[in-house]
Design goal:
Blueprint (H helix, E strand, L loop, with lengths): L6 E5 L4 H12 L3 E6 L2 H13 L4 E5 L5 H12 L5 E6 L14 H26 L6 E5 L3 H4 L5 H21 L5 E7 L5 H4 L3 H9 L9 H12 L10 E4 L8
Parallel strand pairs: 1-2, 1-4, 2-3, 4-5, 5-6, 6-7
Helix pairs in contact: 1-9, 3-4, 4-6
Length: 248
Amino acid sequence: MEFSGQTAVVTGGASGICRMVVFRLARAGADVVIGDVDQPGSAAVVAEARAEGLSVEAVALDLTSGASIEAFGVAVRDRKPPVRVLVNGAGWDSVVPFRDTTPDFRERVMAINLTGPMHLTQALLPVLTATPHGRIVNIASDAGRVGSSGETVYSAAKGGLIAFTKSLAREVARFETSVNCVCPGPIDTPLFRRQPEAFRAKIIASVPQRRAGKPEEIAEMVWFFARPQSTYITGQAISVNGGLTMVG
C-alpha cells in the first residue's frame, strides 16, 4: 500500500471534506492522525475507521490557539511511523458583508484558515523535510483565487494560503518536499449547508455542472498530491469546482 509506514496528519478531519481525506489516506495504508477542535466528531470518525480496520486516531487541535498548536506538534512530531504527509484542511467561515464584520470575526477566520495552518506547518516542517518525499497539501478555496461576495475575509485568508503554498514550495524543494494546494468550489459539506439557502442556490446555479461537489471528489485530488508519485509537482493550486471558475 502506497502510504504504508507513513503518518498523515489531517486537520479538520472530524467532518466534511477532510473526513473523506482521512478515509482516503487510511485506506491507502497511512496511519492517520486527525487534528480537530471537534472532539466528539473526531471520536466518531476514529470509531468508524477502526471498525473498518484502518489506523486512525485523533489529537485535539484548536488552530486559534498557539498553545494548542504547539502541543499538537509535540504530540505528533516524534511518532512512529514518521509524519510524511500534512493536510491543512480545517476551515471556517460565515457569509457576512465585509462592512459588518467584527475584529473577533476577522481574527477567527484568519486564524483557522491561514495563520493557524502556517503555525502548524512550521511546527512539523523539520519532520516533513527530514527525508525525501514529504508532502504538504493545503486546502484553500476558489474564493482565494477569484474572490467571493460576502466572504471577503475568508477570500483574503485563502488567497494568503495559496501564496504561502507557492512560497514555501520554493523554500523546501531542495529537500524533495512538495507543497501544493487544492481549491474547492462549492462542496456539499455541513459548512456549506449552514449558509443561507438563497446563497447556496445562487452559487449552484452558477456552476456549469449545476451541482455542488462531493467531499470525496476533493479527497481524490488531495490523495493525488500526497502520493509519492507526484514528486515533480510542487507550488501548484488546482481548482476542483465543476467549472465554476477556469483560472489559467
